[in-house]
Amino acid sequence: MADTKSVIEQAYTAFNARDIDGALTLMTEDVSWPKASEGGTVVGKDEIRAYWTRQWSEFDPHVTPTAMSEGDDGKVLVRVHQLVKSLAEDVLWDGEVVHTFTMVDGLIAAMEIGGPGDEAEAGPSAAFAHRG
């Protein structure tokens, strides 16, 4: 899991640095990604680029992995500390969530919010509940 851990950590580092290209190089072409601030999912690198561009025009999220483990199904569970601020620096969310990654050929093929047994959220995650 050493290489997988490195890829996932690099993805978080790139996300926090707003380095979209750096993050996308770590993903498959048909990657599936949750739209935490809007609800639903996007598929593919172009859709992720558009989504993150919209998200970062409204919010300032910062996500730091705190623990990583491999699940029985081969998926990688990452506990993260997530800090979401408004563009005016107001704290909208400061807490922990679990991200579940599916890897294919050493690249991120999918990310989901939540771990085993968590109910999937159809709408925006709690971190983005205070839109505006």
Automatic annotation (TrEMBL):
InterPro entries: NTF2-like_dom_sf, SnoaL-like. It comes from the Bacteria. Pfam families: SnoaL_2 (PF12680). Residues 8-110 form the SnoaL-like domain. This is SnoaL-like domain-containing protein. The lineage of its organism: Bacteria, Pseudomonadati, Acidobacteriota, Terriglobia, Terriglobales.
